[in-house]
């Protein structure tokens, strides 16, 4: 089996759709020797920020000298992005060998269980890989929800719930309480929980769940906090503090003030996880140190500063300036809009937007269309994508004119040509119609991870069957 053949097989499992539940995953992992029991883990659920939190948490653990696995979804360009060891993507040869092995070992289970879905199979692959290479820790991001997500087979040292908002209503429920119930399903008995400050409806569900399961709960803004000191396109600098320690001048290379929440959640989760394991090793059930040992503070600082996580307020070209951001729901779009208003007000924004048809299109557009000087709607090569024409019609009803491009490539070429026209016009002195402080152009590509993934591929990233991605 070649790598393209393995990828074709994996994506072929998408025909089985999304089937939430743990029984099948448990049977498959049992056949593989229960590899998920071979490493310590941190489990991350939520709507916004869970990928960033997972990446930062893994980076902090790495800086402390641990061998760390990271499992996330979806990928932007290449399937191998999903499974990493110390930030190194799984090799194509390992994808092939693991696909063949798992497929062979579960071949006789067809009479007992239905065929695994794409996400169930890939989850098993990640856990088997982490076991084989003997990771110390694995940071595991849920695919969708939590309670019935395939990843929820693990018993972590810490459960993490990032900010919860509306998404995947067709699977998780129509109300915020319904969605929070599914996310809170990752909470295990007596396992500590680190959570973002939630809206009342979601917060009440989490509070009830931790009470029922006797799990300690640490909430951002109540039990730990951060103070922003500097925010620009290069990232943020902040102070972290909780009841036991204060660490100043931490930096993460991820732009956007909303990242302070994610960074503090990652910090708290990593601290609790490591302290919990240390206490278990020396036989102490309880006991907190008054401050972090200096080597930990240093490692924490190094880990946050070296975090790599693509597709979030990321500059991918300087001539012309092109930024990508995976804002795919209203809260993420609002955060992106606020960043533009604060840090990119000197630029005329050419907005390229492609959105999935099952998303809250109006909610995503509302904060972003007003900050754009020009708007181009497009669609990634994916079945769930809304047509550019439909997006343009919705925008027109909102009072915004736009242009359409039938592919992400066409949209980028259209935007680049438009930026060149503007630059040429300025060179000829034709700038009287433009405010002098907004003569620089920036192309912003957003609306979906699928959209920005295709943009990254066009701009030089390698992909194997990169336009075929699963639905999470």
The amount of helix comes to 25-40%
Q: Record the strand order, biggest sheet.
A: 4-3-2-5-1-6-7-8
CATH domain class of the largest domain: Alpha Beta
- How many E strands? 17
Structure write-up:
The chain is of the alpha/beta class and 472 residues long. It has two domains: 3-305, UDP-N-acetylmuramoyl-L-alanine:D-glutamate ligase (3-Layer(aba) Sandwich); 314-458, Protein-Tyrosine Phosphatase, Chain A (Alpha-Beta Complex). It contains 15 helices and 17 strands. The chain has helices at 3-12, 23-31, 50-63, 92-105, 118-132, 169-172, 176-183, 200-212, 259-281, 294-305, 330-343, 361-368, 388-397, 408-427, 449-458; strands spanning 40-45, 68-71, 83-85, 88-89, 137-141, 158-161, 193-195, 217-219, 224-232, 235-242, 246-252, 314-318, 321-324, 347-353, 374-377, 403-404, 440-446. The protein has an eight-stranded mixed β-sheet with strand order 4-3-2-5-1-6-7-8. Strands 12-13-17-14-15-16 form a six-stranded mixed β-sheet. Strand 14, helix 12 and strand 15 form a beta-alpha-beta unit. Helix 11 (330-343) packs parallel to helix 12. Mean pLDDT is 89; it is low at 289-294, 430-438 and 463-472.
Summarize this structure briefly.
This protein has 472 residues and is α/β, with parallel strands linked by helices.
Task: Give a quick set of tags describing it.
2 domains, six-stranded mixed sheet, 18% strand, 39% helix, Protein-Tyrosine Phosphatase, Chain A, 472 residues, eight-stranded mixed sheet, UDP-N-acetylmuramoyl-L-alanine:D-glutamate ligase, alpha/beta, globular, single chain, 15 helices
């Amino acid at each position: 089996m070649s790598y393209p053949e393995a990828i074709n097989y994996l994506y072929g499992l998408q025909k089985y759709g999304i089937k939430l539940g743990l029984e099948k995953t448990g049977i498959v992992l049992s056949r593989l020797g229960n590899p998920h029991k071979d490493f310590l883990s941190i489990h991350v659920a939520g709507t916004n920020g869970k990928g960033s939190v997972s990446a930062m948490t893994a980076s902090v653990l790495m800086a402390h000298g641990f061998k760390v696995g990271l499992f996330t979804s979806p990928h932007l360009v290449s399937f191998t992005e999903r499974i990493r060891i110390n930030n190194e993507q799984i090799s194509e040869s390992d994808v092939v060998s693991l696909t063949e092995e798992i497929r062979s070992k579960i071949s006789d289970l067809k009479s007992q269980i239905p065929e695994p879905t794409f996400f169930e199979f890939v989850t098993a692959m990640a856990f088997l890989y982490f076991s084989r290479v003997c990771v110390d820790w694995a940071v595991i991001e849920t695919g969708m929800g939590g309670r019935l997500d395939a990843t929820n087979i693990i018993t972590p040292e810490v459960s993490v719930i990032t900010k919860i908002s509306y998404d995947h209503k067709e699977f998780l429920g129509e109300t915020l309480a319904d969605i929070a119930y599914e996310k809170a399903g990752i909470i295990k008995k007596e396992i500590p929980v680190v959570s973002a400050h939630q809206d009342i409806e979601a917060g009440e569900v989490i509070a009830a769940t931790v009470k029922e399961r006797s799990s300690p709960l640490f909430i951002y803004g109540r039990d730990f906090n951060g103070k922003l000191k500097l925010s620009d396109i290069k990232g943020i600098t902040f102070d972290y503090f909780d009841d036991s320690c204060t660490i100043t001048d931490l930096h993460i290379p991820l732009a956007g003030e909303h990242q302070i929440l994610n960074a503090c959640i990652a910090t708290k989760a990593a601290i609790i996880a490591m302290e919990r394991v240390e206490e278990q090793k020396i036989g102490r059930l309880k006991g907190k140190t008054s401050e972090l040992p200096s080597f930990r503070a240093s490692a924490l600082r190094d880990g946050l500063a070296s975090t790599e996580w693509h597709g979030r307020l990321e500059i991918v070209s300087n001539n012309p300036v092109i930024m990508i951001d995976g804002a795919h729901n209203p809260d993420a779009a609002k955060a992106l809009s606020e960043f533009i208003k604060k840090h990119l007000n000197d630029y005329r924004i050419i907005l390229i937007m492609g959105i999935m048809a099952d998303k809250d299109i109006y909610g995503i557009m509302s904060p972003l269309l007003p900050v754009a000087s020009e708007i181009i709607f497009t669609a990634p090569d994916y079945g769930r994508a809304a047509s550019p024409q439909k997006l343009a019609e919705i925008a027109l009803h909102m009072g915004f004119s736009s242009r359409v491009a039938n592919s992400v490539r066409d949209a980028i070429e259209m935007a680049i040509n438009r930026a060149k026209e503007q630059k040429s016009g300025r060179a000829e002195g034709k700038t009287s119609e433009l405010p002098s402080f907004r003569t620089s152009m920036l192309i912003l590509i957003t609306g979906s991870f699928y959209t920005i993934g295709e943009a990254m591929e066009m701009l030089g990233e390698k992909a194997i069957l990169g336009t075929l991605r699963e639905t999470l």
